[in-house]
Write a structure and sequence with these properties.
The protein is an alpha/beta fold. 45% of the residues lie in helices and 10% in strands.
């Protein structure tokens, strides 16, 4: 199978996706924006990592050996590159995702050209997007996510794999004095002002090879993007998670 272009695989977004998959902290519902001609390759390469028992992809585990061309017993496809699924195909995806994995620990569903789905088809996937099975991961592959149904978009983590230019990278506050200044500066900030500040911190950790910390910060960003925390709660949680190192993932189980 052809490889994805280096401009994409070398991007920060791709590195973060692979890190989250390797750490088994991948979001349960994701909108992936990429050039349409690459959708088939993107779906295959990410599915390889997620379905691999060792979360590396392409090794000799039972799940990796189960691939047959582009098909895998734990990969469910809705539509095809360039063609969105109709409502009957979406219902078949929902039925297929109700079954437990065959050889992997996860079961992945890929919805191609998701922004082109008709409203009945898109609406049929709302419950699966919001409450997938514990072993399920749902991908919406799009060329542009701005056309996605808002109710679907609100349930997913949006990632652009378009290889945009290099983003700013800088370390997060580290000393008590730096954190005090950061809290004072952001005491009146809204959540939409806090989220962008995590991006350069994540980029710095990813480039430094600290994927575990980058993954934790990414999970914090995903939680903040749900907008289900108040402004003050979001600020406090950021400090507690990143400065004090508390494990916050299990405190907000209903928010994910």
């Amino acid at each position: 199978m052809p490889h994805l272009p280096a401009s994409l695989t070398a991007s920060e977004s791709w590195s973060r996706l692979c890190s989250l998959a390797a750490l088994d902290h991948f979001p349960h519902c994701v909108i992936l924006s990429a050039p349409e001609e690459l959708h088939g390759f993107v779906a295959r390469e990410i599915a390889e990592v997620l379905l691999c028992l060792n979360r590396t992809g392409g090794d000799d585990c039972n799940a990796c050996r189960a691939w047959s061309g582009e098909d895998h017993p734990d990969l469910v496809r809705g539509g095809e590159p360039g063609k969105a699924p109709a409502i009957d195909a979406c219902r078949e995806v929902i039925r297929a995702m109700a079954y437990r994995p065959v050889v992997s620990k996860k079961r992945c569903a890929v919805i191609f050209s998701a922004e082109r789905m008709l409203l009945p088809a898109a609406n049929s996937l709302l419950k699966l997007a919001e409450e997938p099975p514990e072993y399920g991961v749902l991908f919406f592959l799009v060329s542009e996510d701005d056309s996605m149904l808002p109710t679907l978009k609100s349930r997913a983590w949006s990632v652009s794999l378009r290889g945009a230019g290099r983003k700013e990278k800088k370390a997060s506050p580290s000393t008590p004095e730096e954190w005090s200044r950061w809290v004072e500066k952001n005491s009146g900030s809204e959540i939409d002002d806090l989220i962008p500040q995590l991006e350069p911190w994540i980029g710095f950790l990813t480039e430094s090879g600290d994927h575990a910390s980058a993954g934790k910060m990414e999970r914090l960003r995903i939680l903040l993007e749900t907008r289900r925390l108040s402004r003050t709660m979001a600020l406090d949680l950021t400090v507690l998670a990143l400065k004090e190192g508390i494990a916050f993932e299990h405190l907000f189980g209903d928010f994910w």
